[in-house]
Specification:
Number of helices: 7
Largest sheet: 22 strands, antiparallel, barrel
Structural class: mainly beta
Distance between the termini: 25 Å
Shape: globular
Number of domains: 2
Helix content: under 10%
CATH superfamily of the largest domain: TonB-dependent receptor, beta-barrel domain
Strand content: over 45%
CATH class of the largest domain: Mainly Beta
CATH architecture of the largest domain: Beta Barrel
Radius of gyration: 27 Å
CATH topology of the largest domain: Maltoporin, Chain A
Oligomer: single chain
């Protein structure tokens, strides 16, 4: 089915689904105070309103246009403001949007909604959000969370046409995205540690880009409401992991009121994309709600011969089983088919040791290579309100990916600058399969102590990661020499008649029991205390059908306790200071020069900061300084190799320290002006005070802003980072030392959106406006690199109905 047919079918589905549209009042409110807006809604809906005068003072609200339904209008007015509207007993009640709508001193307006609207960003027009539970599973505002947390909202995603998770993370404060090869990116934070913990609506999953089977890194943003990143150790919720952070991907939710949109996109390198999103009630009283999202994309690339095709489907149904019981069930599916793909970057060095300099269109992959991945994710959540403002929540997630690959990449060796010789192929054929199962059950609520109310969550989580990799022999590809100047990206194809080369099965199982409480000694002070008991185990098995002497099996089982502590002091309603502590625990599979596996990495994570939330939470800013101390940190043992292999050996060092500074301001300066700006500084040193992790920039600045001029919205920004480099030796050339670097650089982006009518808008994005050429990543294992994208444009038309 061609693209035009797909768009026609999507349009037909939209019309068929657009049912159960029940009449209600329609509201348009712009440039009003909260009090003025409430008076308008009160008059039109014949509902009185109740609000504390202090809540009405200097409160900034969102503009809304043609919003149908009183509750929906109130929700959109107040999202991101730190307030919530409850329609109860023929009145509109305005309260602070705190967890479970309960205040510290015990005043309670009763259960209102099992789903916290303040955790959804869609339709708010905001660059920030009202509350998050990613850090501790306790729902708190950004100001109340004693860690560095950043968010890219639905509005920011739409403004910059950020259609993939890597697009989003490239704009995220403090994050460095470095491509290993097509469809493979490592996400670094906090001094150069890789983020391997991803959450899907809070359920933990694991990713390792070096397996080439990391489906989370290919996620399409058609499915998601927003992306949250907590920087620093997150052991309370994730158990084992680097002190880098956690990425929480929050899916779109069904809406009670019918809404639908169609979007078509074209862009540089023959980019064509169509997206359909329909949501609404499936019965007259709105107790059953559904949402369907589908998208199709095909595109070429700055690289010669490289093309991609993506198909995305997402469906979710929410049902109010009773007034206090909510069930959500859904599935998302993605098919990813690249051709001309490369498993690594291009060679970074000439044979004389100098750094290469190619055209950005260079593709080190064979034109017939492919690396297809098919991923489906099934999930369900049951939330049950209990007595005395307690809630039980049970969530499960099943993620499965099938991978089939067939290819060759010209990546091994040193290039002779004059002849083009010296490079050998890396690759082959085969398949892989990955299954991840996640489960979490928790109970949370409030309790009274010393005549004050406090919050508590107690839970148990289970997670299993099973990755099986089965390459075929392909002996006529691996190690075959080519001439880099005339190979034409068309070497001999893999000969797979010899069958499997080996089977590799890697299993990780984590079980954890966690508890966290937010204790309020006074209205101004919060103590957040918690801990997690974790049981971590993995099995690593290699089976060679022909070379059985190379078979190996390794098992590991470890228990650990991860403490968590935070103190937040509210200077006043808008400003707070905090300090937090947690520990670091990460088992390692790196081996030393004797072939022994290194002991688990352990350490401590300290952070102290200041946060504020202005205009009722519409604008958030933060300043944080942190220190990470680690022992048993694996670093390359230069010149040594694991016995019987060509793999580099590692050694464990004690006393590694990371120090850093985070600054961020995000949200609305006024009703027309959105801003997200950040600066991060970070440096990791070994026990001898020598800098390590040097492929992570010491300084990063990220700025993006938009301004609305009635029908026209203009936006622009810049990402700047300091130099990245590495100095290393290679198992291929043990007597040579290699130095690669990318000097400091800046990339500018711009956008414009014009509202053609109430329902139709056009958006143009220009990326890398000044066509800066730069290395977006340098990789010291294969001595390869990747260039960032050259100047390109994306044009979208979006119709809502």
């Amino acid at each position: 089915m061609n693209l035009k047919k797909k768009v026609f079918v999507a349009s037909s589905l939209a019309l068929a689904f657009s049912m159960n549209l029940f009449g209600d009042e329609v509201y348009t409110i712009k440039d009003k105070t909260l009090k003025e807006a409430l008076e308008i809604i009160s008059k039109k809906s014949n509902l009185s309103y109740i609000a504390n005068d202090k809540l009405l003072e200097t409160r900034k609200i969102n503009n809304i246009e043609n919003i149908e339904g009183t509750q929906k209008a109130l929700d959109k007015l107040l999202q991101g403001t730190g307030l919530k509207a409850i329609i109860k007993n023929e009145a509109i009640v305005i309260v602070k949007s705190e967890a479970k709508n309960s205040s510290k001193n015990g005043n309670d307006l009763g259960k209102i909604d099992v789903v916290a609207n303040s955790e959804i960003t869609e339709g708010t027009g905001s660059y920030t959000l009202g509350s998050t539970s990613t850090a501790t599973n306790l729902s708190m505002s950004l100001k109340e969370t004693p860690q560095s947390i950043s968010v890219i909202t639905r509005q920011r995603i739409d403004d910059q046409s950020l259609n993939s998770i890597t697009d989003v993370l490239q704009q995220m404060p403090g994050i460095s995205v470095q491509s290993i090869g097509n469809g493979r990116s490592t996400i670094y934070s906090r001094g150069g540690y890789a983020i391997t913990n991803y959450q899907l609506d809070g359920i933990p999953t694991y990713t390792n880009s070096r397996t080439q089977n990391a489906s989370q890194g290919l996620a399409d943003m058609a499915v998601y409401d927003h992306i949250e990143v907590i920087r620093g150790a997150t052991g309370l919720m994730t158990g084992a992991g680097d002190p880098s952070g956690t990425i929480n991907m929050i899916r779109k939710k069904p809406t009670k009121d019918t809404q639908a949109s169609m979007e078509v996109t074209v862009g540089s390198w023959d980019l064509y994309r169509a997206q359909l999103d329909i949501s609404g009630s499936l019965n007259k009283n709105g107790t059953i709600r559904g949402r369907v999202v589908s998208a199709y994309q095909e595109n070429e690339s700055k690289k010669d011969y490289f093309e991609e095709e993506k198909k995305i489907f997402y469906g979710v149904v929410e049902a109010d089983i009773t007034d206090t019981t909510l069930l959500s069930v859904g599935v998302d599916y993605q098919e990813y088919k690249p051709t001309g793909s490369s498993s690594t970057g291009f060679p970074l060095f000439y044979s004389d040791g100098s750094q290469t300099n190619f055209s950005r269109s260079l593709n080190p992959g064979a034109k017939w290579s492919y690396d297809n991945k098919e991923t489906y994710n099934i999930f369900a959540t049951l939330q049950q309100e209990l007595i005395n403002d307690w809630r039980l929540k049970v969530s499960t997630n099943y993620l499965h990916t099938d991978r089939e690959f067939y290819g060759a990449t010209a990546a091994w060796g040193l290039l002779d600058k004059n002849t083009g010789d010296g490079i050998a192929l890396y690759g082959g054929a085969g398949d892989a399969e990955q299954t991840q199962k996640g489960f979490d059950i928790n109970i949370d609520g409030t309790y009274k102590l010393f005549n004050r109310e406090h919050e508590l969550v107690l839970g148990y989580s289970y997670f299993k990661y099973d990755n099986t990799h089965s390459p075929l022999s392909g002996t006529n590809v691996e190690g075959n020499p080519i001439n880099y100047y005339n190979w034409g990206n068309n070497p001999s194809k893999p000969d797979t008649k010899n069958g499997k080369l080996y089977d590799w099965d890697h299993v990780i199982i984590q079980k954890g029991t966690y508890l966290a409480t937010r204790f309020h000694p006074s209205d101004d002070l919060s103590l957040i205390l918690g801990g997690r008991f974790s049981d971590y185990e993995y099995d690593d098995k290699w089976d060679y059908p022909v070379y059985s002497s190379s078979n190996s099996k390794e098992n590991y089982d470890e228990t650990a306790f991860t403490p968590y502590a935070g103190i937040v002091y509210d200077i006043n309603e808008e400003h707070s200071i905090y300090i937090s502590y947690t520990s670091v625990f990460e088992p390692q599979n790196s081996k030393d020069k004797n072939g022994s596996t290194l002991d688990p990495r352990e350490g401590n994570n300290y952070e102290i900061g200041y946060k504020n939330e202005l205009f009722g939470g519409a604008l958030n800013s933060s300043i944080a300084v942190y220190r990470i101390e680690q022992d048993n940190l694996a670093v390359a043992d230069t010149g040594n190799y694991i016995p019987g292999t060509t793999d580099a050996a590692y050694k464990a060092i004690d006393g590694a320290v990371t120090k850093g500074l985070d600054l961020e301001i995000t949200g609305e300066i006024n009703s027309n002006w959105n801003l997200q700006a950040s600066y991060t500084y970070s440096k990791t040193e070994d026990q001898n005070n020598e800098r390590i992790k040097t492929t992570y920039p010491r300084h990063m600045v990220k700025l993006w802003t938009t301004y609305n001029l009635d029908k026209l919205t203009l936006g622009g920004g810049v990402n700047w980072q300091s130099k990245i480099y590495f100095d290393t030796t290679s198992w291929q050339y043990p007597n040579m030392k290699f130095h690669a670097e990318q000097k400091a650089y800046a990339v500018a982006n711009a956008m414009a959106r014009y509202k053609i009518s109430k329902d139709l808008s056009a958006t143009l994005n220009i990326n890398n406006v000044f066509d800066k050429k730069y290395l977006s990543s340098i990789e010291d294992t294969f001595l390869t690199g990747e260039y960032g994208n050259s100047r390109n444009f994306i044009f979208s038309l979006k119709y809502t109905f």
